[in-house]
Amino acid sequence: MPVSDRMRAVAALVQPCGCMADIGCDHGYVAIELIKSSTCERVIAMDINRGPLKRAMENIRAYGLQSYIETRLSDGAAALVSGEADGIICAGMGGRLVISVLDRRKELIRGMKQLILQPQSELGEVRRYLRTNGYVTEKEDMILEDGKYYPMMRVRYSESAAGCEAQNCGMKDFCAADAERLSRVQDTYGAFLLRTAHPVLREYLLYRWEKLCGIRDGLRKAERMSGHERIFELTGQIEDITFCLDNYFS
Predict the structure, then answer these.
(1) For 74-121, what is each residue's pLDDT tens digit?
(2) pLDDT tens across 154-178, in order?
(3) Is 211 helix (H, G, I), strand (E, B) or coil?
């Protein structure tokens, strides 16, 4: 079974439990990995499209796991019944779609013990949604695979966390003037990853810093009037990365 490093890392975030629902299961590899590793007793593999679901069913049958993995056609978590799953996995989909999945079955999902999320885009929007809607991050991971960086997280709902602000945990010499930037960089890069000085995040920050500096310097040399606003935007992003490196990785 061609389990990628990304899928293996997603599966590794799941806490042992009775049942997980894998939303947008694609080929069913994560579900199969969870059963093979004895992390879950049962998995519901769900997808909105019949094609991926059919491929997942074929892979599940190939491993003889039909008794442990149920496939279900579903738009997000629409086909889930309250109480049948301990948590959900949303991996490999856009960030706004992840938010939509969480928001459309809000009460059902808030009652779950764990949510494993691996958005492919709009990470800042996802983290901001989680932070302002009562979710706490229990663990984050980040890997580099085939030249791409993949952050992922395990979160759970906590009523007491609703509307919470960013925290300066792990940051040296914090002052009130940094509050706005702190909130922004934690949403962008992940408070847990920053707090634990995750080595892959450090690698990504250095890569991103160099790339953004190159783009900004190129615009400056070209002296393009239309590039002035873009230069200002790039400078702000570079300063945010420098802030992260100085306060969490030095």
Answers:
(1) 999 999 999 999 999 999 999 999 999 999 999 999 999 999 999 999
(2) 999 998 766 555 555 544 555 555 7
(3) helix
Q: Which residues contact 219 (CB under 8 A, 6 or more apart)?
A: 227, 230, 231, 234
> CA 95, CA 117: separation in Å to the nearest integer?
9
Task: At 163, give phi and psi (nearest 5°).
Answer: 75, 15
User: Phi/psi of residue 118, each to 5°?
Assistant: -140, 80
Choose among 86, 102, 105: nearest CA to 39: 86
Please name the helix (run of DSSP H) or strand (run of DSSP E) that holds residue 160, with its range, or none: none
Contacts with 36 (C-beta within 8 Å, 6 or more apart), sequence order: 63, 65
Task: Outline where the chain has alpha helix (H).
Answer: 5-12, 29-36, 50-62, 95-104, 106-110, 123-132, 179-189, 191-195, 199-222, 228-248
Whether 87 and 21 have beta carbons less than 8 Å apart is answered as: yes
Q: SS3 for 180? A: helix
Q: Are 15 and 154 in contact (CB under 8 A)?
A: yes
The model's pTM: 0.91
Tokens for 99?
A: 């938010």
| Chain centroid offset of residue 219 CA | 32
